[in-house]
Design goal:
This protein is mostly beta strands. It is about 0% helix and about 40% strand. The chain is built from 2 helices and 51 strands.
């Protein structure tokens, strides 16, 4: 029993893990899922192993059972007093009966299968767990917070090759797990973390359920009505891909070249392993939890009544397992004296659907009980009786703006005493239908469905049908863009992107002597001639037999001498952040940005150094950076331009770094793994401070990091740190903004 208790205690971290991974957990397939340590990339295997979600239990709000594709049903193993489940759950009082919510476990299993006694390199225990688990989305036991999720989890605390992929073969397919930079991994895939949506768990890969495999010993069986006993390691069956084992393959997973592999992989028979012996570990045994259901439950899918002058009837439909004894009775008075109608059995179709149509001789009860008498104890669903509504919704379309088009709704109740005018449309401010049960709503665009509600509790949602005239297609429009003014010799781009409609083809034409590149695209180009003047270009678009045209004028100005201008820059520049230099006030055809080659600190200016603006990452440096802008006219042929010429101008800007002053730093270690280091900075702008143990900046001795707050203070408080106090009893600190202090003495 201790083996399973220990596993559950590790699993108590579930709520923390869900917080880290919930954004990723619904994804299946070859996607990487973030986890507390390392990486999990699902490989083969698919959902579909779980086929049916059982009825929701009226007492605890969880499904009574899940059914797999092999027809095996398992119920919640949620009772600590059940010796075959007790090691896997814990209630506030394990000696008292389970009651919701006061004495109910915060997590339990429909099935749990843990690989047994699997050990990796260095004697590290391997956790490989496969479960269908019930729990709560938030701390505490609260109705409405119930979740059921499929879980696959792996954990190896140490001994792996760093940042290395390992292949896991398990009963539900394969996974690739990647160790972190310490040689450990702890990865989880959960599917089904939305409260109340119990079908989500069937989209996970856990399923069908595993059961103890038969052995040569006819008495080697799980306890009656269980798939395992929760304690004994045992071989299993049920894998949809016939891999009823856990195998992990990868560099040195079983130890070094001279070590003895504690769990070597099978090298004969089905799924035989071929490869270095210490690159594979395997176990065929699992500790298995799972209880076959003692109840079938019942879900009520309808409880409505009909009231006419000739009488009153109740209609009930329900779902459960086939072969159940399900009845409906008066929910206000029970089945005894005072009942308003006689208890009536539901008729079955043999597949799990049930119905009853019952006559009520007098007054109508407000509620009914639907009871599965085959359950022990009987399952009772207490539900409100409502009237049944029928409705239609249609929308008549006219060509045009739709200002006069109307949504027409009709509805009626199964209760003839309900006035038609009491029926309402909640989607339209509870607008009431008229005395004939009709309503018209003016709208240019109707919804896809309409809901009608009754004062007797009934509600119906129906699709909106459409009929009438069809709308006109999008008109064909040719748009050659706005007129432009450019300098001689520059490259000009025309803009036809404003054209619309089903365009089959388009083309541009211009004045003689002008070559248009890309003349059949929306954004062609040409080079402005040296002669000043106005050029007119025509865009023609075609759709079938329809043709439209538009023109645009491009005014070409005479060449003016180029001018290089760099916009104002800060007196001091923040280090390790992007900076943009603006040369858009310059005049010229071509831009060239570069760095002064004599600078002590070299800068990467990126790939775009020919636009009017330059954005680059200002480096960590203590010396200024000088950036040069050369602006050339269209007639300039290139070459040197260190001083202005008639066709080239040059500007230079000095960027002085803002030096981050980290001020006084205090560092303490309590000798129990807790580091507390604080200080100040001269800037809080996107500034993160990192603290290292020792007299240098050594990434392997990173203690922690902290953001500089708006008061320019920072503090890192790290508990349970594995970074030891260095012999110098000192720390070194650096910031994103260039601050650095080395060998700061500890207090």
């Amino acid at each position: 029993m201790n083996r399973l208790v220990g596993r559950l205690r590790a699993g108590r971290n579930r709520k923390k893990v869900v917080g880290l991974t919930a954004l990723f957990l619904l994804a299946l397939g070859a996607v990487a899922i973030a986890a507390p340590s390392g990486l999990l990339t699902p490989g083969s295997g698919s959902s579909g192993g779980l086929s049916t979600v059982g009825p929701v239990n009226p007492n605890n709000g969880f499904p009574d059972w899940y059914r797999d594709s092999n027809g095996i049903d398992l119920q919640p193993c949620d009772d600590p007093q059940d010796k075959y489940c007790g090691g896997a759950v814990a209630a506030p009082d394990n000696t008292a009966p389970i009651t919701f919510p006061d004495n109910f476990p915060d997590e339990f299993f429909y099935m749990s299968a843990d690989a047994d006694s699997l050990t990796s390199a260095g004697g590290n225990k391997v956790l490989a767990s496969f479960a269908l688990e019930g729990a709560f989305a938030n701390p505490g036991i609260h109705a409405g917070d119930q979740i059921v999720f499929s879980r696959i989890r792996y954990r190896i605390n140490a001994g792996l090759a760093k940042n290395t992929d390992y292949k896991v073969t398990q009963p539900y397919g394969t996974d690739t797990v990647t160790s972190d930079d310490t040689g450990a991994l702890f990865v989880t895939q959960d599917v089904g973390v939305s409260p109340g949506d119990f079908a989500q768990a069937t989209k996970g890969r856990v399923g069908p359920f595993l059961t103890w495999a038969k052995t040569a010993d006819p008495n080697d069986l799980p306890p009656a009505n269980y798939v395992g006993d929760g304690v004994t390691p045992h071989t299993v069956t049920g894998s949809p891909v016939n891999t009823n084992f856990v195998r992990i393959q990868g560099t040195g997973i079983g130890g070094g070249p001279t070590d003895t592999n504690p769990n070597p992989c099978n090298t004969t028979g089905a799924n035989a392993y071929t490869g270095p012996v210490n690159d594979c570990i395997q176990t065929n045994n699992f500790v298995l939890v799972g209880k076959r259901p003692t109840i079938a439950g019942v879900d009520v899918t309808r409880a409505t009544y009909e009231k006419t002058a000739s009488g009153t009837q109740i209609a009930v439909t329900a779902n459960s397992k086939a072969g159940q004894d399900i009845v409906v009775r008066d929910g206000d008075n029970g089945g005894g004296p005072g009942r308003l109608f006689r208890t009536t059995p539901l008729r079955a179709d043999g597949t799990g659907r049930y119905m009853a149509y019952v006559s009520v001789p007098g007054a109508l009860p407000k509620t009914v009980d639907v009871v599965n008498r085959a359950d022990t104890p009987a399952t009772v669903k207490h539900v409100d009786l409502t009237d049944a509504l029928t409705a239609t919704a249609s929308y008549g379309v006219t060509n045009g703006s739709g200002g006069g088009d109307k949504l027409h709704v009709t509805a009626s109740s199964s209760d003839s005493s309900v006035a038609q005018s009491s029926l309402t449309l909640p989607g339209y401010g509870d607008k009431a239908l008229d005395a004939t049960g009709q309503a018209d709503i003016s709208t240019p665009a109707p919804p896809d469905t309409v809901t009608v509600k009754s004062p007797k509790g009934g509600s119906v949602t129906v699709p909106v049908t459409m009929s009438g005239q069809t709308l006109d297609p999008l008109p064909l429009i040719a748009s050659a863009g706005v007129d432009q003014t450019v300098s001689a010799g520059v490259k000009v781009t025309l803009d036809g992107t404003g054209s619309a409609g089903d365009i089959d083809s388009l083309s541009w034409s211009g004045p003689a002597g002008i070559t248009v590149s890309g003349a059949t695209t929306t954004s062609p180009t040409f080079t402005a001639p040296a002669t000043a003047g106005t050029l007119t270009f025509t865009l023609t678009v075609n759709s079938g037999t329809d043709t439209k045209t538009d023109t645009v004028d491009v005014k070409v100005n005479p060449v003016t001498p180029p001018t290089a201008v760099i916009g104002a820059v800060p007196a001091a520049v923040l280090q390790n952040l992007p900076i943009t230099l603006d040369g858009s006030a310059s005049v010229g055809a071509k831009f060239e940005w570069s760095q002064d080659p004599t600078d002590a600190t070299k800068v990467s200016l990126g790939t775009d150094t020919t636009s009017s603006k330059l954005t680059f990452l200002y480096p960590k440096t203590t010396t200024p950076v000088h950036i040069i802008l050369r602006v050339r006219s269209a007639a300039d042929t290139g070459g040197a331009c260190d001083t202005p010429t008639p066709t080239c101008d040059v500007a230079k800007v000095t960027l002085t770094p803002l030096l981050d002053n980290l001020g006084t730093i205090r560092a303490k270690n309590d000798g129990k793994g807790r580091w507390v280091v604080d200080g100040s900075s001269s800037t809080s702008e996107s500034n993160n401070v990192r603290v290292y143990a020792g007299p240098t900046i050594d990434p392997t001795k990173l203690i922690g990091s902290a953001l500089v707050d708006p008061t320019l203070a920072w503090k890192t408080d790290v508990r349970n740190s594995t970074v030891a106090v260095p012999t110098c009893r000192c720390v070194s600190v650096e910031s994103d903004r260039g601050g650095r202090q080395l060998a700061v003495p500890m207090q």
